[in-house]
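Q: Here's a chain of 867 amino acids. Please give me its 3D structure as C-alpha cells.
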Amino acid sequence: MAFGGLKTAHLSSPKHFNPSHLFQFLLLPTIPSHQTLLPPPIQFHSNSNYSPNTRSVAAQELSAVFSKHHPSLPDNTHLQNLAEKLTPETVETVLKDLKGWRTAHQFFSWAAQQDGFVHNRYTYNTMASILSRARQESLLKILAKDVVNHSCPMSPGALGFLFRCLGSQGLIDEAQYLFDNAKRLNCVPNTYTYNCLLEALAKSGRVELVETRFKEMVGSGREPNKFTLMPVLQAYCNAGKFEQALAVFDRIYNSGWADEHVFTVLVVSFSKWGEVDKAFKLIERMERLGMRLNEKTLCVLIHGFTEERRVDKALVLFDRIKEFGFERNLALYSVLIGGLCVRKDLNKALDLYWEMKELGIFPDVGVIKKMILAFCGEGEMITAERILEEDSEKLDVDALVLLFNAVLEGLTNHGEVDKARLLIQAMMESQEVHPAQGKAVESVIDDITEAVTGNLFRFKKVVLPNAASFNIVIDGLCKTQKLDMALELLRDMVVMGCAGNVLIYNNLIHELCNMDRLDESYELLRKMKESGFEPTHFTYNSIFGCLCRRENLSGALDLVIEMRRNGHEPWIKHCTMLVKQLCEGGKVMDACSFLNDMVRAGFLPNIIAYTAAMKGLFKAGEVDQALKLFRSMFVNQYLPDVVAHNIVIDGLCKAGRAFEAQEIVKEMLEKGLVPSVVTYNSMIDGWCKSDRIDLALLCFSRMVEEGKLPTIFTYTTLIDGMCNASRPDDALILWNEMKEKGCELSKISYVALVNGLCKCGREEAALVYFREMEEKELEVDTFVYVALLNSFISKGNLIFGFQLLKEMVRKLKFPSPTDKNYPLLIDALRKLYEDENTFLDVQNLIAEGLVPSIHSVHDLGTDIKET
C-alpha cells in the first residue's frame, strides 16, 4: 500500500483495547447523541492558486473518472492533464464527493503517485475520516505511519482531529506514535490536541496512559479545561477507580463545569459498581441544582438498581419516570415486578401488576410467570390462581402451558408436591374429554379439574403438560423421596405420548442410585435408550457411584468400558471413594487390582486414588507393593505430589527402612518438591525408631534452617528418642525449648517424657512431670503408673512404690489380665510382697479384694510369709 508516493509497510498490530470500555464510552445511554466530550473539531480551509471555477471543474471531472472506472483506471491523456491540475484542495473536494471508501482510497493513492503532488494535513485528515467511518483499521494504521514518514506539517487542531479518527477505531498505539513525533510534524500540541488524545485513550480503557498523558499536559504548563477532565473522569469510571473518579468530579464541580452529562457519567458508573446509595445521593444533588436525568438514563438506572437488589431505590426513580411524563413500558414494569418478587414484597408487586394493566400494558408470559412463581412459592395460591385466570383467556395454548408450569414449579417450591402431582394429572386427563349429556367440552374439563384440584387452578381448555411440566413434578417427587410416585408419573408420561427429556431420566436414575435401587436404575437406563435419549456422563456416573458404594468391582469396570465407548469419563470422586473404602475394609489388593483395571480400560485414576491405595498397602504391611505402586504412578505420567511422597516416607520409616525413606526425600528435592513439616516429622520418627538419634537431630536442624516450625509431634518424637538413647538431660532441654516455643503440651508429650525418664532411672524427675500431668487434669494411663511404680521399686524405694500402688487402686487404674502391662504389675507386686517393709500392706490390700484378679498372695506365685 502506498501513501504520498511511497511504498509503506504495515505497522505491527497494537495491543488490543478493551471493547467493553469502548462500548460503554461511546454508547453510554445517558449521553444525548448531539453531545460530545470535546468542542466541535476545527474546520480546515484550503487555499488554492486556481480559481474556484477551475478547481470545481477539475474536481468534477476527477470524481466522474474515478467513480466510473473503479477499480481500474484508463491510461489516457485526459487523466494525465487532470493530474497536472492536482492541488490539495482539489483532492480534498474529490475525496468528499466520491461514494465508498474503496474508491476514495484508490483516488488518494493515485494522487500520491503524481509528480509534483504531496498530500497535506487536510487531505490526510479527510482520508482518515473516511477510513474511520468505514472501520478500516489496517489502512488507518498505515496512514498514521505515512504522516510521520513524510513529516507532513500538522497544526495542533489537525493533529487532534486525526487522534479522534484513530481513537474511534481503538488505534491507541498509532495515536501515541503520532503525538510522540509531533516535532517531526512541525507541531506544538496545545490543549485541544491533548484533549483529543485523552479522549481516544479513555475510549480504549487505557487508564494508565490517560493518567500519564494528563500529568504530562499539566506539567507542560497547559491548563486543563472541562473537555480535558471529562475523558479522565470517564477513564476512571470505566476502570472502576472509585476514589480517583470522585476527585476528578470534584475538580469539575468546583470549577463550575458540572452539567447533567457530567453527573450522568458518574451516576451510571456508581450503579455499575453496585454503589446504589452513592448514586442516589448524586441524583438528589443533581435535583437540588435544578438538573434531572433523561429518560434513557432513568431506565438504565432502574435496571441497574434492581439487579443490585435495591428495588427500593429503583421504585423512587420509577416515580420520577411518572413525574416527568416519560413512557412507562412493559420492560420497566417487568424488571420492577421481578425485583419485588425476589425481595418477596408481593403486595407491592401486585399493585404494580394491576397498575400496568390499567394503563393498557398487557403483561407478557414472563411477567405473569414471575408473579405466579412468587405467590405460589409463598403459599398464596388464591392470588396466583386469580392472576392465571384473569390473563389465561388472552393467551394461546403454548403460553398457557408455560404458566401452568410456573404453577407446578411454585407448588413444588412451597413443598406442595402432592398438589403439583394432582394438577399435572388433571392436565393429562383434559385430553380425554368428550362432550357428555349436552355439556360443552370446556365445561367438562372444568368439572374434572375442580374434582382433582378443588377450586384452584381450574382450566376450561385442553392444557397438555410438556416435558418441562413432567420434569418439574418428577424432580419435586425425587427430592421428597417419593420415588415410586415419580416412576408412576413417568409411566403416565410415556402412555400420554410425551417423550420427556434427558433431565427427567437423569433425576430419577440419580435418586434411585442414592437409594441403592440399582436394578431399577439399570432398567430405567434401558428405557431411556429405547426412548431415543443418549445417556450423559451424569447418567452413567450416578450408576457408577452406586456400584462403587457397593464395592461391585466387576459391575463398575463393565460400566466404565461402556462409558469409554460413549465418550464419557468416570468421576474421580467415585474411583477415590471405592479405593479408600476397599483399603479401610482390608481389601487392599482388590483396590490395587481395580486401579490396574481402570488403566487397562483407558482411564488413569486420580492421584488421590493412588495415594489412598499406597496408604492402605503400607498399613497392611505390604511395603514393597506400596513402593511398586508409587513407581507405577510415574509410568502412568503422574507426578506424585508432596502428600504422596510423605505417605511413602512415613510408611518406610514405620517399617524400619529409614535409609530408603531418606532416598525418597532426595528424589523429592531433585524434582523441585519442598519437604513439608510432615516429611521431616516422619524422618525424625524413623531415625529415632532406628536408634539413630544423631541423624534425627541432623534432620531436625535442617527442618529449622529451612524455616519449618517444629510441632509438638516433632519435639515429642525427639524427647522419646533422646530417652531411648539414654540422654535424659538433652530430652529435658528439648522439653523446655518446646514450652518456650509456645507448643501446647499434650498428654502424649507428658507420657513420652515420664516414661523416658523412668527408663533412664530418673524416677524423681519423672514424678515431677507425672504430678504436673495431674494438675493439668490430663488423663494418666495405667501404662504411666506401671512405668513409674517399677522405676521406684527398681531403685529400692519400695515404700513410695507401694504408695503409687494404692493410688492406682484408688483411681481404678489397675490393668486387666489381658493388658500387656499386667505382667509388669504382678512382678512389682511380687517384689513389694517379698520386702519385709511392705509385704503386710500388700497382703491386706489383696485380702480386702482391692486388687482385681488377685484373690490371694498365692496368685503372685510366691511363698506366704509368716506374720
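Q: Can you summarize the key feature?
A: The longest helix spans residues 52-69.
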